[in-house]
From TrEMBL:
Cofactor(s) this protein cannot do without: (R)-lipoate
Annotated catalysed reactions: N(6)-[(R)-dihydrolipoyl]-L-lysyl-[protein] + 2-methylpropanoyl-CoA = N(6)-[(R)-S(8)-2-methylpropanoyldihydrolipoyl]-L-lysyl-[protein] + CoA
Protein name according to UniProt: Dihydrolipoamide acetyltransferase component of pyruvate dehydrogenase complex
Localisation: Mitochondrion matrix
Assigned keywords, A-Z: Acetylation, Acyltransferase, Lipoyl, Mitochondrion, Phosphoprotein, Transferase, Transit peptide
């Protein structure tokens, strides 16, 4: 019957293809529709908040294309597609809570070889093979070619930790190589220097004498301050993401008896040293602030007082002395308070710490700090003085046992060794320690040693590794 119908309508079959009036017609078939589940992103996270969709129903996606951004109480994660196909269904609205193991989207895969349906697999951050491709720990869509992604995967580099220098933040091959060189200590050949040529003079430029004198236009524009909007209505919203994490962390911190200790530090010599090194550091492309010196001095002090770089279990029965000095820096970002940490400070120079701080500040400003940067801290400094204030009462971040808050640097009159009044650059510091395992004398001696390193920065050279 089918053959008779084809003859009557000028259709015919040839090698499994449909021919009409000698024209080849393609038979469009649909592939299977697969649910793409939210897999385990580690750190015991069981639910996330959908912050942004990068696709809509009907969009065509390829492998590694970004699907959505989700946020846990520890970090933001960009989920990327495992399949080539068409988005058929979005399971969640923006700001909705998605549970690990449940579908995020349905994807109609392209026809062809049978697509193996991937069951939800519990992956740890250290063991996950999809960490570099399907789940980038960051707040924005990763832009990188497959070749760059492959290079990152082969060298065990997370794209979330690399700052892209290409257009719109695209990660280039050079970014991966520079990141790898920084990790391994290799020296890459310098980038060719391109001299900036001044623009050629205009052909018929009027003389300065014939031109009316104009008032110079200020080159620095004042920042635009947005006006607050008063609605007159109460607004209630659930705590999510980093704010929810802060509730959990601060509630745990309430169980810790805090011992406070405060002092002032004369940074006059350090101010002069930084002034001398600032230009050299900027010539290497790195901004040098005071924080690398504060962090390195803290690490040198922790070598003498390792109990301040320790942690206790929940029952407070055991102390673990941490071998690595992973010193955190409390950072005020658009997402809230984040505390990324510089890993293995005891092995880094002041300049290497500055490089890491530059990287983390860049990622923090764009919401791209990943789980690797936000976890594993052993000791914390809060640079609250960059906003204002002199003294503070810092709250310990469990399971750590100590934290310091740095006030703003002030120029104040002080007496020198000859009883002369001189101008001094003074900073106040406020320490908090877990008084269950740290006594006041230990905290005071550590603070004195830290202060001595900063007041006499040349002395740090003797103890540098």
């Amino acid at each position: 019957a089918a053959s008779q119908l084809l003859k009557a309508t000028n259709y015919r079959l040839k090698n499994g293809c449909l021919i009409f009036n000698d024209h080849l017609l393609s038979l469009v078939t649909s592939g299977p529709i697969l649910p793409f589940k939210l897999s385990d992103i580690g750190e015991g996270i069981m639910e996330v908040t959908v912050k942004e969709w990068y696709v809509k129903e009907g969009d065509k996606v390829s492998q590694f294309d970004s699907i959505c951004e989700v946020q846990s109480d520890k970090a933001s994660v960009t989920i990327t597609s495992r399949y080539d196909g068409v988005i058929k269904k979005l399971y969640y609205e923006v700001d909705a809570t998605a549970l690990v193991g449940t579908p995020l989207v349905d994807i109609e895969t392209e026809p062809g070889p049978e697509v193996v349906h991937e069951e939800d697999v519990v992956e740890t951050p250290a063991m996950s093979n999809d960490e570099h491709t399907h789940q980038e720990i960051k707040g924005h869509k990763t832009q990188a070619t497959p070749a760059v992604r492959r290079l990152a995967m082969e060298n065990n580099i997370k794209l979330s930790e690399v700052v892209g220098t290409g257009r719109d933040g695209r990660i280039l091959k050079e970014d991966i190589l520079n990141f790898l060189a920084k990790q391994t200590g290799a020296i890459l050949p310098p980038t060719p220097f391109h001299e900036i040529q001044p623009p050629p003079p205009a052909a018929s430029a009027p003389s300065s004498a014939s031109m009316p004198k104009m008032k110079p236009t200020p080159s620095v524009q004042l920042p635009v301050v947005s006006r607050p909007v008063f609605t007159g209505k109460d607004i209630t919203e659930p705590l999510k993401g980093f704010h929810k994490a802060m509730v959990k962390t601060m509630t745990a911190a309430l169980k810790i008896p805090h011992f406070g200790y405060k002092d002032e530090v004369d940074l006059t010599r350090l101010v002069q040293l930084r002034k001398e090194l600032k230009g050299l550091s900027e010539a290497r492309g790195v901004k040098l602030s005071y924080m690398p010196f504060f962090i390195k001095a803290a690490s040198l002090g922790l070598l003498h007082f390792p109990i301040l770089n320790a942690s206790v279990d929940e029952a407070v029965q055991n102390i673990t002395y941490k071998a690595s000095h992973n010193i955190g820096l409390a950072m005020d970002t658009s997402q809230g308070l984040l505390v990324p940490n510089v890993k293995n400070v005891q092995l880094l120079s002041v300049f290497e710490i500055a490089v890491e701080l530059n990287r983390m500040q860049t990622l923090g400003a764009t919401g791209q700090l990943g789980t690797a940067d936000l976890t594993g801290g052993t000791f914390t400094l809060s640079n609250i003085g960059s906003i204002g204030g002199t003294y503070a009462k810092p709250v310990i971040l469990p399971p750590e046992v100590a934290i310091g808050a740095l006030g703003k640097i002030q120029v104040l009159p002080r007496f020198n060794s000859r009883d002369e009044v001189v101008k001094a650059h003074v900073m106040n510091v406020s320490w908090s320690a877990d008084h269950r395992i740290i006594d006041g004398a230990t905290m005071a001696r550590f603070s004195n040693l830290w202060r001595d390193y900063l007041e006499n920065p040349a002395s740090m050279v003797l103890d540098l590794k």
